[in-house]
Specification:
The chain is of the alpha+beta class. It is built from four helices and eleven strands; from the N terminus they run αβββββααβββββαβ. The protein is globular.
Length: 189
């Protein structure tokens, strides 16, 4: 009888872990997160993410470990004409042919003191608001070296949403794996 109890105590936790839906990068067992106020959904690789809802801003954040994190920002009441009096914003807007999303990307580049790794127009599943994907390499505040930031930014009808992944430059392969799963899960309705 004692052997059976020991076997159960060993096998049962293994069975529990085998049933655990938390998986890391690239797998299909991510958790759905609904943001009905923003009319979008996405997935996170773990259920233990932080969520903040203040005024007209929703914020979701998850640190996988000290090297990799995911964030979602939704600002529900954005007026891009408001900062026209700001000369830096106006210059970035002019340099980008009046394209608000590319001007936001240029502002991110300026604020991070980084270098542009890539930028492209994109669409998401569902209602398909216009968007861009931007990659930036910038000096790390945590380690000697650089960090990477990849962000998909959408803007439509006064709603601004940014889906962002950050990691160290040395963790670029894992960042790419998470990027695929995270960005492919974005859905607007």
């Amino acid at each position: 009888m004692k052997k059976i109890i020991i076997i159960i105590l060993i096998v049962y936790p293994v069975f529990l872990f085998a049933q655990d839906p938390i998986t890391i990068g690239g797998d299909n067992n991510w958790f759905n997160v609904l943001a009905p106020r923003g009319n979008f959904s996405f997935q996170m690789p773990q259920s233990g993410y932080n969520q903040r809802d203040t005024l007209s801003t929703l914020f979701y954040s998850l640190e996988i470990d000290t090297l990799l994190s995911l964030q979602v920002h939704h600002i529900g009441n954005v007026h891009t004409e408001m900062p026209v009096s700001d000369p830096v914003w106006q210059q970035l807007l002019n340099q980008n042919g009046g394209d608000t999303l590319r001007a936001v990307g240029a502002m991110m580049l300026l604020l991070t003191n980084g270098t542009l790794e890539g930028i492209q127009n994109i669409t998401a599943s569902g209602a398909q608001p216009p968007g861009i994907e931007i990659g930036i390499k910038y000096p790390s505040e945590k380690i000697a070296g650089n960090d990477l930031l990849i962000s998909r930014i959408y803007y439509q009808a006064g709603k601004f949403v940014a889906f962002t992944l950050t990691s160290t430059e040395g963790d670029a392969v894992r960042l790419g794996s998470y990027k695929t799963s995270f960005f492919n899960s974005i859905y607007f309705y």
